[in-house]
Design a protein that fits this description.
14% of the residues lie in helices and 45% in strands. The protein is mainly β.
Length: 129
């Protein structure tokens, strides 16, 4: 009987410890081309990546450009941190013209949460060229 009480106590303490632990959340960055007919190039560099990447987005197309994490964070996340925490640069070019939208500003991204994933979404429209 004493052995069962000791085992149950150990399990209870372990569960309490695990429930109070910090977590690592996933963060995704997506860009969507909402121009009428033109494709665009998106050149981007994230701090956890050693290379600059370039993709082409057709009109109406959305693309995941980065999946990252912010390290160990407190429970009840993910958290909306400034995009400069993850992004070094994002440049959008359509028909040789660079977008006027500053992708390093938090206002250029809409943050939402889906389960344990923080989602940063940006759209690029014709009015930003």
């Amino acid at each position: 009987m004493m052995k069962h009480i000791l085992t149950l106590s150990l399990v209870a303490v372990t569960l309490l410890f695990l429930a109070s632990c910090d977590s690592v959340y996933t963060y995704e960055y997506r860009v969507k081309n909402i121009t009428d007919t033109s494709s665009m190039q998106v050149r981007y560099h994230f701090k956890n990546d050693s290379t600059v990447n370039t993709i082409t987005l057709a009109a109406g197309q959305e693309q995941l450009i980065c999946v990252t994490n912010h390290g160990v964070e407190a429970m009840h996340g993910p958290y909306n941190k400034p995009v400069s925490h993850d992004i070094d640069s994002v440049i959008v070019i359509k028909n040789g013209i660079r977008s006027t939208k500053n992708m390093l500003l938090d206002d250029s991204w809409i943050f939402s949460v889906s389960h344990a994933t923080g989602l940063y979404n940006a759209t690029i429209s014709d009015s930003e060229f």
